Amino acid sequence: MKVVLDELGTVTPTDTVTIMPQISGYLTKVGFKQGQMVQKGQFLAQIDPRTYEIQLAQYQAALAKDIASLAQARSDLARYRKLAAQDSISAQTVSDQEFTVAQDAAAVKGDRANIDSAKLDLVYCHITSPVTGRIGLRLVDPGNYITSSSSTGIAVVTTTNPTTVIFSVAQQNLTPVLEQIEAGKTLTASAYGSDDVTKLEEGTLTAVDNQVNTSTGMVKLRADFPNRDNKLFPNQFVNVHLLVKTLENATLVPSPAVQEGAPGTYVYVLQPDDKVKVQPVIMGPTDGINTVITKGLKPGEVVVVDGVDRLADGSKVMVTGRETVTTNGTQETLTPVASSHKGQNTKAGP
């Protein structure tokens, strides 16, 4: 029997990037269609570069001026040193000129840094996509003045291939999952549509959160999906079926046979004298159709699956019909029993 956890999950892109301007200026051009797939490095938008081109020209002019000043200062320093060697000028004059050379050299470095900054601003005028994915609706129209402090951005790009699904499991179901992970097993996760029937994609469990949510008692898990056909859409709700393990040689009974009451969890077992007996059992996993019984039943014992609400310990029953059940994947045709209580029965199967 397959042990599967059925949970509700949310499709979460591996990357969600808001395209933000890094400089201020007028948006002159948009190079994408809303909702299209874009590639990393693809042109998306253009900011008017003329202001930054003028600024670059000013910095380049300042650099040329400061380079000339530095050359003159160095020439004067060389001449002053010769004169100082002849005791023709004071040592103070030479020292002052050395400081002038240092100041001019620093000015040249500052000009070059300003030029690099201006060139970078020109690069920022040409906005490209940092990731491959699907771009959303345009948030700013051409002609608007945008700033680097804007929180809106130009558009949002989300990666779709591959993608992830985030879902939560109850803390009591976490131990079997962790045991499989510690054993090096790869757990398969299947994503289904809202009808829980249409299978969208199959992936693998890749991460478990490091803490339990104290408000809900749930733990977040993440599964990765190739999403080659783009069936999983960002922020879409999906039903996740996580296959934890497959139980071999398990004792199964139809889930309706398992009852809860004063004795705890129990089933009605048919005795050789056609009377039923209340048999306490310990339940294992269930898939909604069959339930694993870990203790209390032996394979081949017959249990009541219908009409149990009218039975009591020691009630007499008789056979009324036939029923085909599945026990651990093997079909068996059984002869149910009934009396005035009309209780249908089936065998517990290995």
UniProtKB/TrEMBL annotation:
Molecular functions (GO terms): efflux transmembrane transporter activity
Q: Which UniProt keywords apply?
A: Cell inner membrane, Cell membrane, Membrane, Transport
Q: Which domain of life is it from?
A: Bacteria
Domain Multidrug resistance protein MdtA-like barrel-sandwich hybrid stretches: 16-158
Q: Where is this region: Disordered?
A: 326-350
| The Multidrug resistance protein MdtA-like beta-barrel domain, residue ranges | 163-245
Domain Multidrug resistance protein MdtA-like C-terminal permuted SH3, first and last residues per copy: 249-310
Its cellular-component GO annotations read: cell envelope; efflux pump complex
Q: Which residues form the Multidrug resistance protein MdtA-like alpha-helical hairpin domain?
A: 55-124
- Location(s), subcellular: Cell membrane
Q: Which Pfam families match?
A: Beta-barrel_RND, BSH_RND, HH_MFP_RND, RND-MFP_C
Q: Which NCBIfam families does the UniProt record give?
A: RND_mfp
Q: Which family does it belong to?
A: Belongs to the membrane fusion protein (MFP) (TC 8.A.1) family.
Q: What is this protein called?
A: Multidrug resistance efflux pump acriflavin resistance protein HlyD/AcrB/AcrD/AcrF
The protein's organism comes out as Acidocella aminolytica 101 = DSM 11237
